[in-house]
């Protein structure tokens, strides 16, 4: 069933005559349009896409099954005219994506508005076969890039240099964009879950966290590996690593369609807590990945959401010891009725760099 048809069926349930889609990821999901300026209005019988002159040719190539309007006036006026033409008495809008300033403009145009939340996102959470293939290709591109980076990882090189090399390799593998700037965090910096690469040089005994992703057809991948620079006494680093690895294995093993996301989180968190690191794992165990690198579902102790078949999400427990270092291991999985298919394939045995 077409995505816009699913959305049309929701309108009466929401008590609206039409819905304004302004989130560009949702615009892309519904229409295929990849421009940086545009919105969609869906009514029970009609689909309209507005954009500006810059995208006149692009939109005609990318979008089928929509009435295309190239704006000749201010967008709120164009929307008002569409509401009049299609007799939209109450227009829903994505409350997470409309600024207060634009909301005021729509109100001044005498448009009756109703905020709605997460409607298109509720469709996006279940991946189609085509979407799964895009994500798998994004995974392959990211993994190939990391394999090319491995020979460059050694004591003395800076985090920043490795991050730049990794990003270059990701692009060379065919990714048109990056889901986020690559994270390379070494030594004490690896205890910061979202550390930014610095000019710090890798040292012997450092744990080094790499967090990166690839892209294919607008869909992203997200993965993390932690390596260790060899030294005389690395027993504590190994303990952290294998504690996280076992926690991750337990979480992945717990995945199946029908489980609550909080139970997946608990599978990892309980093991880390029992190992004595309960104060050093503060983030959720995973998150959905698709057109956005962070989307639903949220795999966290706070979330009671039920996992459904063909949801794609990460499993990424970690331990972060301030002043010492951290470990995170992240794979992507797709939920099935009989368990999880692991989409990432990079080895997870601890890589000890001897250079």
CATH class of the largest domain: Alpha Beta
Instruction: Specify Rg, calculated over alpha carbons.
Output: 23 Å
Q: Tell me the helix content.
A: 25-40%
CATH superfamily of the largest domain: Creatinase/methionine aminopeptidase superfamily
Provide keyphrases for this structure:
4-stranded mixed sheet, 355 residues, Creatine Amidinohydrolase, alpha+beta, 10 helices, 19 strands
Kindly describe this structure.
By secondary structure, this protein is of the alpha+beta class. It has two domains: 3-124, Creatinase/prolidase N-terminal domain (Creatine Amidinohydrolase, Chain A, domain 1); 129-353, Creatinase/methionine aminopeptidase superfamily (Creatine Amidinohydrolase), CATH 3.90.230. Helices cover 35% and strands 22% of the residues. The chain contains ten helices and 19 strands. The protein has helices at residues 3-14, 24-31, 56-62, 75-85, 100-108, 119-124, 129-149, 159-172, 235-254, 261-277; strands at residues 18-21, 39-42, 47-51, 67-70, 91-94, 113-116, 183-186, 207-212, 215-216, 219-220, 223-229, 286-288, 295-299, 312-315, 318-321, 325-328, 331-336, 339-342, 351-353. The strands form six sheets. Strands 4-3-2-1-5-6 form a six-stranded mixed beta sheet, with helices on both faces. It starts with a helix and ends with a strand.
